[in-house]
Design a protein that fits this description.
Helices cover 75% and strands 0% of the residues. It is built from 15 helices and no strands.
Length: 420
């Protein structure tokens, strides 16, 4: 563990490559696996836990939705407050801490017997998800890739959706068979093993730690410097301020829809259909993200974001009225295409416009606004379900997307600060 005390020291050049493959792709592969477990057991699984907790704890959807909101709020806040450290210490420490916190929280599910204890569980799981999740993962990809950043980001972030496809259905069955108490310790073990070992062995804070340059470019005679805007410069632009509001709105709708999807479909049809809906959403997210990673190399990133905000609104509107397996599947596919791409395009557009000089701070502050939406989404849609219906909840989310689109159009032209 001594090598983890700083990211400044470089490892010997002979270890820089694995055959003829640029080491950055091994970093991408490790991030893919890490995000697959953190999303499959955390992000996508929040909707499954919501449904199980309502039944086991005899609680209202509103009360349990508040607990899942805490999970997302804590996760985003933890990432923001620790973002400065990502430029100073070995980033593997974040995955280690996140793996330990998440594992402890999930193991503690065996003692959750009340709504208050459920909130405490989600606080600790949120810390694990925020510290060892998307923020350090996208920071690494932004540092390791320039020219191929969109493709690398799409592959790495596809781990999020892969978790929803491969892991969340298994977790749902485990909850059905063992309940919260019986499933918790097994999920804690899976969380730790899926995040910590590979992250510590493979990840490196930046290419120079392996004697390399981004994209595997030839190393210059003089040490490179990170280019881009400072946090203060980014925050001073109208575009960035609008971008914060936009992602707050679209993530309110998006995560609210994801968190309530399982419960909504289980009420209208059954639990098997609900698990299938979550998997379909995740599969569509994978396909959409991989295609989006290629499309964004041909189109302007801001144009693609605007189009996908509208696609997400359509998907949520379809879910509001879906009352059969086929209708739910079609709606989940449309919704999933937007989910996968918008999650990828958020860090990508920030790196593209503002560079990597203070990327972790700029991205984490934008994520903090997104987290407000992420935290509010499950709760707001849960309240609307309790006072009206899930149809009202999902239509409200669709309208929020339209508002987000309008705010995005008012942001004006994107600045060009990546090379400063």
């Amino acid at each position: 563990m001594k090598a983890m005390t700083t990211s400044a020291g470089s490892e010997p050049a002979p270890d820089a490559a694995q055959g003829s493959i640029f080491y950055g792709w091994f970093v991408v592969a490790a991030i893919f696996v890490s995000l697959m477990f953190s999303s499959g057991i955390g992000f996508y699984n929040a909707s499954v836990i919501l449904g199980v907790a309502v039944d086991e704890l005899d609680a209202s959807v509103t009360a349990v939705s508040g607990a899942t909101a805490v999970f997302f709020a804590v996760g985003g806040s933890a990432g923001f407050f620790l973002s400065k450290l990502m430029d100073r210490i070995d980033i593997r420490w974040f995955f280690l801490v996140g793996g330990i916190c998440g594992a402890i929280a999930l193991t503690g599910l065996r003692w959750v017997t009340s709504v208050v204890e459920l909130y405490l569980f989600f606080v600790l799981l949120g810390i694990g998800f925020g510290v060892g999740g998307l923020l350090p993962a996208t920071t690494l990809v932004a540092r390791w890739f320039n020219a191929k950043r969109s493709v690398a980001m799409s592959i790495a972030s596809t781990g999020l959706s892969a978790g929803g496809i491969a892991i969340t259905p298994l977790v749902a069955r485990l909850f059905d068979a063992r309940g919260l108490a019986g499933a918790g310790p097994w999920l804690g073990l899976a969380w730790f093993c899926g995040i910590v070992p590979l992250s510590l062995l493979v990840l490196r804070s930046k290419p120079s730690d392996k004697g390399l340059e981004p994209d595997g470019a030839p190393r210059p005679d003089t040490p490179p410097t990170l280019t881009g805007a400072t946090f203060e410069q980014a925050r001073a632009t109208k575009f960035y301020r609008h971008l914060c509001v936009v992602f707050g709105l679209i993530f309110l709708a998006q995560v609210g829809g994801i968190a309530q999807l399982f419960r909504m479909v289980s009420e209208r049809i059954d639990n098997d259909a609900a698990a299938t809906a979550v998997s379909t959403l995740a599969l569509a997210s994978v396909v959409g993200r991989l295609l989006g990673g290629v499309v964004v190399t041909k189109l302007r990133t801001v144009s693609l974001i605007a189009a996908l905000i509208l696609v997400q609104s359509i998907g949520l509107s379809l879910l509001a009225f879906a009352d059969s397996r086929i209708a739910v599947a079609v709606a989940a596919i449309v919704f999933g295409i937007s989910v996968g791409n918008l999650l990828m395009l958020q860090p990508l557009v920030i790196a593209e416009i503002f560079g990597v000089r203070e990327y972790s701070r700029i991205y984490s502050f934008n994520m903090l606004f997104g987290t407000i939406g992420v935290a509010a989404g499950p709760f707001v849609l849960g309240v609307l379900r309790d006072v009206s219906s899930y149809r009202t909840s999902f239509l409200f989310a669709a309208v929020v997307n339209v508002v987000g689109f309008a705010v995005f159009r008012l942001a004006g032209a994107a600045p060009s600060l990546a090379g400063e």
